[in-house]
Every structure is written in structure tokens, then in C-alpha cells.
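Quick one from the shared queue. A colleague (R.T.) flagged Integral membrane protein as missing a structural entry in our internal table.

Convert sequence to C-alpha cells.
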Amino acid sequence: MAGTDEDAVAAADDALYVLTAVLLTPAKFPSVLGDDYPEACAALGLPPQADGYGLVLGQDGDGARWTVVVDDVSLVAIAVASWDCGMEYDLSPDERSVVTALPGWPLAVAVAAPGVPVPHDPEPDSADRPALCPPDTTVWGPAQRRLGADEIALQWAQWREQIDDAEFPTRDGDTGSVDGAPRAGETGASSDEGARADASGGRVAADDRTGAGTSGHDGVRRVLTEARAYVDTPPPLGRVRSSFAPGDARTLRADGPGWSLVARTDDIAFILLDEEPGEVLPVGRGPSLPGLLEALDRMAVRPS
């Protein structure tokens, strides 16, 4: 365990009650921690190794919060998949797979181990670094923007059904709004308006019923321009990710400075911006979005 605090590892390993676990890999990482895999690793003080990590979150016998980092990614992936299916799985990483133990939790955990004190940070003298804590998501900012994009990807059908393609404006350079589009991160909340745009960044034919010009929203234009640039100049690892979707489609997730994009390769896209608190901006299919999404999917990181 070179480069780790062995005392902290021993303290965390002493009767650690496992509450949950998550993957930290180029293709799947807690996006609340960063726009890409290296940024998420940096938030935990970890080098972005190619195979990634598993993060095991639990409490020791005194109730202190610990995040145990392991390099047995497959073991953690099996545990997470089992729990997602409602199955029991006893996650007990071999101590040889432990990379380090970090005080605190980087993510919010709503449960606690039974029979031990309520969750609290370890004593300062038990670790050589400040305790981890979840990013602040009580106000709109990068963390909440990424969580909003996570929700759209997870609940795609619910968000998509609120968008009527026929309502996309058809006048050149026009933008419009959609009634009934909930705020990012607030599924089922009261409606907000979202600007609609096509991915071409230019004019749209009058008979194109699935797109609108982008001239009315500079933020959308900027995002589409930066996303197109990713195709020619690959961004940091994990900034564009591709995952499974129904049929032959893929779910695409791309992030950049101040923005997140969620799309289906056979459908439209949604954009969230740091400067547009709570707004969800649908991007019409149009003539150019399909090619952009296909190009992003080809260079995206995929789960192994």
C-alpha cells in the first residue's frame, strides 16, 4: 500500500460496515465529482489509473465514515449490479485489493449501519487528510447541473414524453419554449421553459419540423460547438460516455466547462448550463444532430 496512510487503512478495515459502493472508472464514475474521470479522481486525491477503482462506503465500529478505495473493480461491479437487481451480496474486498482508505464520504448516503453510533467524520488524528464530504447541491452549480443530467439519462422516457417535436419552431433563427419541461433535478416539478435548438448552428429549412435555429441562445450554440470540437480533439477521458439504450440506440453523456449534454443517438438531446439555473434546453433532431451524436458515440468511452 505504498503512498497510503496504513493507520487509516487499518482503522477503516477494522469491522467496516459496508453501506454502499460505486464505480470510479473512465466509463462510469459519480459525475457529481467532476466533468470527467481525471477530475473525479482528483477530487479524491487519486491518480486516474486506466482500470479505475471501486469505492466502498461504510462505517467503522465507532460509526465513523470511511471510503475504502479498492482496485478490484469487477468485485464492486458485481456487488452494485446485484444490489440494483434487489439481490443480496456480501461485499468484502480482499485487503490485498485495498488501495487506500479515505476519511468521510464523497457522496451523500441516506442509510447508516445498525447498532453503531450515527455517521460522523473520523477523529482528525486517525487520518492524514481532511474528511471527504459530498459536493454542495443545495444551490445550482456544476455538481447540481451534472446531477440533473444524470436524472435525465436515467429517466429518459419521462423527460422525452414532455417534448412534442411538432412544437419545435420552424422559422429561421427562431427559438421557442416548451411548456411542461420540469427543472433539472426536480422530476415532476412545476414547469419551466426551455429554448429549443438544432445542432447545425445555422439556418434551418422552413419545412424542418424537428429543429430550430440556434441564434436565439448563445449557450446552446457554444455547447454544440464545443461538443463538435471533441470529435477532432479528444477531451479528457470520460468526458464523453456511451451507455446502453433500448433498441439499437445508445445513451450519450457529454460534459464540458459549465455544461452537460444528454442524448439518445436515435433521438434529440437535452442541454443543461451553469448559467441557466434549473433550465433544461431541448435540442431538436434537425439535419445536423444525428451526425454529431454518431461522431461522439464513436469516440466515447463505453463500459467494458
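Residues 218-232 form the longest helix (15 residues).
The chain is about 25% helix and 20% strand.
Added to the table.
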